[in-house]
Amino acid sequence: MFEDDLESVLPSFSRLLFDLCVYLETRNYSFLGIHCCRPLSLAGYYETGFQPLSEGRVRQLIREYGGEGFTDDDAAVCLTALDLGCRRDLVMFSAGYPEDVDDHSKHYLLIGPEFLCEIANAITVAAELKQKFSDGMERSLANSIPTVFVVAVPFKSMSEAGRIGVATQLIAGHLWLRSTQPKRSKDWCRDMSLVCDMPVPPSAIIGHTHPVEIPNFFSGRKVISKGHATRCGFCKPLSGSLALSDPAL
Question: Which pLDDT score is estimated for 240?
């Protein structure tokens, strides 16, 4: 079922979409999502949650991955070289379970904040500064922790486009329409994102998994990287199952 077919097959689609969005938001529903990253510390996630990718957040990441000796002026130059594109002021979660981590999300586990790699190719960044950042980033990645977070993503934290996307999937997947069959939310397409334009609080974290086994698709052969063995003070066990009465669907 293509989204542009819904209106013709279901004339009341627009009204149903609006009512469903209101229903999910007023009842504080959340949806199960996963967030893949390669942080230098998990402390920030459990203290401030997941933050939209603002310029301030990017500047912070540049400093963290640049390491000691990387100044605010250096970070400002590098920031101008980055194009945040569709991720600007958003934080995204893949819909599904940890075992559903797709190849795109694995990029974040392999190389950390992938958009920072643009610094190495930017003509606005001097060669000396590129090398300085590359050396710092390489050292930082060696000490980072490939992690998959499992999160109950609040519907009311999603952007307008994110809410419409979720509600549309629910309508198309759970109603018996002309060219589709009902399906559970865990069977949604793996490239679907839960897109938020507001911070997602640490209380939404159900648990996390690390270190993570990562198929390395960049090397031309399949290499498994298990990350680093860690003793994490923030570790929380994942729920054994998610019942229908649970807030995360």
Answer: 42
